[in-house]
Structure formats: structure tokens, C-alpha cells
Amino acid sequence: MIGGGILAPAGFRGAATRVGMRIADGDDLALIVADGPATAAATFTTSRFRAAPVDISAATVATGAAVRGIVVNAGCANCGTGSGGVDDARRMVAAAARRVGCPESEMLVASTGLIGSRLDIAGIEAGLAGIHPERGARVAESVARAIMTTDTRPKQAAARVTLPSGAALTVGGTAKGSGMIHPQMATMLAFLTTDAAIDAVGLQALLRDVVERTFNQVTVDGDGSTNDSVMLLAAGLVTLDGPDDRAAFAAALEAVARSLAQQIAADGEGATRRIDVTVTGAEDNRAARRAARTVAGSQLVKAAVHGADPNWGRIAAAIGRAEVAIDPWSLRIWIGDELTFAGDPVAFDEEAASRVLRGATVLLRVDLGVGDASGEAWGCDLSAEYVVINSEYST
Amino acid sequence: MIGGGILAPAGFRGAATRVGMRIADGDDLALIVADGPATAAATFTTSRFRAAPVDISAATVATGAAVRGIVVNAGCANCGTGSGGVDDARRMVAAAARRVGCPESEMLVASTGLIGSRLDIAGIEAGLAGIHPERGARVAESVARAIMTTDTRPKQAAARVTLPSGAALTVGGTAKGSGMIHPQMATMLAFLTTDAAIDAVGLQALLRDVVERTFNQVTVDGDGSTNDSVMLLAAGLVTLDGPDDRAAFAAALEAVARSLAQQIAADGEGATRRIDVTVTGAEDNRAARRAARTVAGSQLVKAAVHGADPNWGRIAAAIGRAEVAIDPWSLRIWIGDELTFAGDPVAFDEEAASRVLRGATVLLRVDLGVGDASGEAWGCDLSAEYVVINSEYST
């Protein structure tokens, strides 16, 4: 991992400014710009009640054409806003495209925040007219901060690899997401950049695969959202020479996405610790990931972790309802390194297990006993603070 | 609705005693006995990690043979207890059968409480040897209390109907369940009795149908459980004369089951109010019920209700991820009688909506705009108290 976040790869600039849609201080509008036409890939929420910007960006990416930038705001999701909201999103795209000097068809848009309120579109237009995209780590962090909602800290990651063919390739990214976070893309926005040269179809396949193993394995509260988007722009500066280079690029992309996913989990609303769940012995990888997500998303497991209570029965119960094949008689459950169940309950050091649960990152491991596949998921504990935050959000 | 709970119908007696497996004071072992051979039906958890008593009772009910009673304990789920737990459950069945004077194959068994701990089987055997099943409302309430875990109050219901053919028919029931409550039968036990005469196949079909619309529509925390069971015994005293009588019986059974389901929702762990969700305009009843469950189970909706925050966007987001057909442009959302969204946001009286959310029972209604089917679900708000309860349960 290196510094520089979303602007670590060559070929990108960024800018952020304050419109005032987010109540908290600081910037709430960001623009990410590629110096030239970039290949784009994206994955979006599976919600059937999705926001206007999602509809617009999904249509743009589906054409497979090159893209010049992404405009993002925080504080207002522009969702449930009817035809007026669609008009607002189009005006936001147009204003950003004017600023960049590209057609509207080359600008992606994303929004995050409260559902049902309208954008301050005049403010956005004024904001976009006045900003000047620049390079550098300081700017990347200002972009990372501008997309935050209830996040307590910005989320950035970047990786540089030397390809087997010899060239240096860079991937950068930033993400936001703290509540309404669940598998299949939650109220989570993630933006990724790379200097790699790759066609749109190949980039989309790669992104879909990486998102499946990373962002889709984060769960904070089981509430999938209306606005979730992961967007990836590739500047086309570094040639990928054959399958080995492609594999090295894929690994760097996954490392950045995984880091951002873990940062989202750790910063879940009200979270005091991150929960990393590893499932082994599954029938296939999909089942392993599903089981891991179910454990990471279980309210009772989350509450037990919060209370540092080594209550492995709740992990077993979550596995039981995950709708994946298990062998209850050879199921094994670990809290950290403590084996707590192996078909029968196992005598274990409860104090040691409780210490594991008090750590900043809690490792839970389950072997389903039916195969060789494995998977991971990331979540966080459930604190009374979560309830306080979410009882008072819109009022 | 009448009084008398599970002993309201003729033909049944009950008893309760204390073994000491539940930390809280009071009885924690109950026996429900039919005076003669009763027809039995039951539905069980869909968990793949299910408790020993569930395996045993499911096998007994599957034979279709007559049953004489049900033995239940609280404080220990007898789940995740390996082969020793299976032996314990069999000894519990044997002890209850000895007390009643019936073959072991005519006794059902259920347990609820902590996963992974072993039954105090010697205590249970001693307890069963010393109890004397009796009739009456006082006894029915002692049974209802003996099966409680984190429940704050006993749950009972009974209904008496005059059948079209002229006879009086009675249905009674009791249930427990407070946490680990979710659709598809959660940590919930429900026991139902009736004096109706009906064959086992017909009774099972009827029960399955009623459970689908009642107990399976309750959600407290999304955590389905290992021990959930609904058991129904029919004493065979009141003849059902044709389809009209059958329909009247079905209606009485559903009324009792629905009341118990609502009582479970209202007594969710940490709950301060019940949430009733009605979904209309759905493609089919199954989709309507699924959508209603998703809203009732949404952590963010539950937290918003707790904070009396009329944040209809969270209801829309829950509907969006429910994986049912919707028309976002004609979707309508009501909080009580306040229409808050109808394709576009609607100006509404936020103070009136907030008052609805502060009531003991909160009505949320959604019309999906794609069909004529409807469904209901019941849940409760999410309070900081829920987290406190569940951080400290086993330790």
C-alpha cells in the first residue's frame, strides 16, 4: 500500500468544495477528473428503489464508451425525489461536464445522504463552476473527506505493483459508508482509479469479480441502500502485456478494494471494533461468502462481540440459518485461536476468547465441514451508540 | 378472544415446576397433557443447525400418530450439545411419558434458552416425577410463565367460535419469544390446543398455512433460531361438519396464532413499541408478506421508529431491497394515516407522523403499485436496551 489515495495513479486530478447540503462542516461536493478519455466500469445497488444518479450513471457505463470524470455529493441521496430529482441529477452532470469540457455522456454522477430531499442544484452548479481540479495527496484526501456522511474518518487506499512485463502500475481509491451497509452494495460509494490500459468489457468483468469478494462482503446493519455505487476509471497509460500482467493488475485492484471494504466495516455507525469472519470447509466459494456474511451481519453476534461475550452458540445459530450446506457434527467454530465448538462443545479458555473480542479487530472462524471452499466477510460490533445515531438522523 | 390460554379447550391439562436452569426466578419446566390421544401438527425452524429436541419432535410428528403431550423447558436450548444432548432430550421425553403413562413415541419435547449448555437432566427427571397436571386458567398461566426466557410477560390467547353446524369449538395457545426472532420461525416456541376433531394431514396443512401468515411474519432482530417450534394438539372432541366448519376452525386458529405473534413482536427484547406493517398492491401474497417482513425487520426503520423520526426514506429503501416487484413511480408510503410518498415526496404533517411513531402500536403501510395482493408483518423498535440485553446474555 502507498499513499495518495484516489489520485495515486497518473492521469487523474480531483477537487472538492462546500455547497452546504451536509449539516456537518467541510466540503460536500467532489469531482474526480481523468486527463483524457478513461475506460469505465461500475457496479450498482440491486435495490429496486434506486436513486436518480444511479439510473443515470448505470446507463452511461452500459454504453462502454470512455468517461472523463465523476461528480459526487454528500448530504443528499437524491433518491425518492421523483422526476424533479432526475432533472437535478442531469443538471449536476451537465455542470460537471461544462467544468471539465467534455460531453455530458462522459460524466458519471453519485449522491449519498438523506433519502427524499432534493439537491441544492443551484449551489452545486455554482460550486462546480468555481473549482479547479488538481493533483496530489492533499487533494485526494479532500475528495475522500467530501464524500463522507456519518463516516468518522476518510477512507483511502492505493497500491503500486511492478508488472511481470516490467512496467509500474498503480491503483487508487476512496470510499464512504458507515450505516445502511450490507452485502450487495450498501450506502456505500467507492471510487477507484488506475493508470492501466484495458478495454471496457475486461475492466467490467474484473471489477465485478473483485466487488463480489470485497465490497459485497461488508455488512454493518443489513440495510442495503438505494445509492450504492462502485466506479472504476482506467486512464490507459500502462499497457497490460498478457495474462500475467492482467493477474498482477487484478491483485492490486483487489488489495485496494479490500482495504477500503475493511475501512468501511471498521467505521460502521457506532462501531467500536471490526469483525473479520473467515469461513472454510464450504461446498463452494459463494456458500462460504454467504455464511461469512450471515455471521458478520448477525445482530446477536454483533452484540455479543460488543459485550466481549464468547457466546459461540450465536455464531452456530447464524451459520444454521445461512442457507448453506453444513455438517452440524463436524462444524468447528473459533474465536481468535480458541476452538469453542467441534460437533460437541469444547472446553476453552473463556477469558482468552473474551480478550479476543475486546481487540480492535476480532477474528471469527467457522469450518462448515462439507468441502474445501473458503470466503471472508467484514462487519463491526453493535453498540448502543448505533441506535442513538440512527434514532436522530433526519430530525 | 376468551381467557384460559392453552387450557381453554376441553381435553387438556398442564403443570409447571422449577428445575433452576433459568437464572430468573420461577418455574422453567412445563408439561401440557391431552386427556386422550390427540392429533398433532407442528412446524419447526428451517435452521440447519437445529437443536436435539427439534430433531426428536419433528420425527415424532412426521409419523402422523396420535400424541399425548408436550414437555418444555426454558433456560437451556439443548442445542450444539452433541450426542450427549440427544441422549438428554430422549431422557426428558421418557420422563414425561412415564409421568403421563404413555409410550415415549407419544411425547413431544421443546427447549429454549442458551445454546451450547447441557440440560440439568436429573433435575428435569425429578421435576417431572413430582408434578400433577391440572386444568384451569391459573395453571395455563403458570405454563405460559414457565416457558419464558427474556420475555417480560407471558403470552396467551384463546378463542371460542360457534361452528356453522352448531357446536362450540375452542382454540387456545401460549408462546414465548423475545430475541433471536425472525421470519421462518425464530427463537420462538408456540403451543396450541383445540378440542376439534381433525385428521393429522388436514391439521398439518392448516397449521402450515396459518404459521405462514402469523408466526413467520414476526421479526425482532433478524436472527432465526435453532429451536423454533409451533406445536398444535387437537383433542378430537368437536366434530367438524364440512368445509364451513373447517373454515370457522381455521379462522379461530389464525386469530389465536395472530394474537400470539403480535404479543411476541410487542415484547421484543428492549422494545418500547410494536410495529405493524401492511403491504398492499403486491404481485402476490408471498411478495406482500416478504416486503412487509423486510420493512418490519429493517434496523434503520426500527431505529427511526424508536426516535419517532418520520423518515419514510428508510421504508422506501427497505422495500427496494426486498426483492419483490415494485413500481417506484407509483409506490405509496403511509405512517399511520399520513401519506408521505407517492412516487414523489408528499408534503405531510411531520408532527402528526411523529406522534404515530410514539404510539404503543405503530402502523406503517406501503402500496407497491403493481397488483392487488396484500400481507402483514409485525416487529418492534430498536432501542439501546436491546444492545445492553444482548451484550450480557451468557456471561
What report would you give on this structure?
The structure is a homodimer of 395-residue chains. The first copy, chain A, has helices spanning 52-62, 82-100, 121-129, 137-146, 200-213, 243-266, 285-297, 299-306, 312-320, 350-357, 384-391, and strands at residues 12-17, 29-44, 67-76, 107-114, 155-162, 168-176, 189-197, 229-239, 274-282, 332-335, 338-342, 344-345, 361-367, 373-380. Mean pLDDT of chain A is 92; it is low at 182-186. In chain A, the strands form 2 sheets. In chain A, strands 1, 2, 3, 4, 5, 6, 7 and 8 form an 8-stranded mixed beta sheet that branches. In chain A, strands 12-11-10-13-9-14 form a 6-stranded mixed beta sheet. Chain A is α+β, with helices and mostly antiparallel strands. In chain A, β7, α5 and β8 form a beta-alpha-beta unit. Helix content of chain A is 34%, strand content 28%. The interface between A and B is large, with 72 and 73 residues.
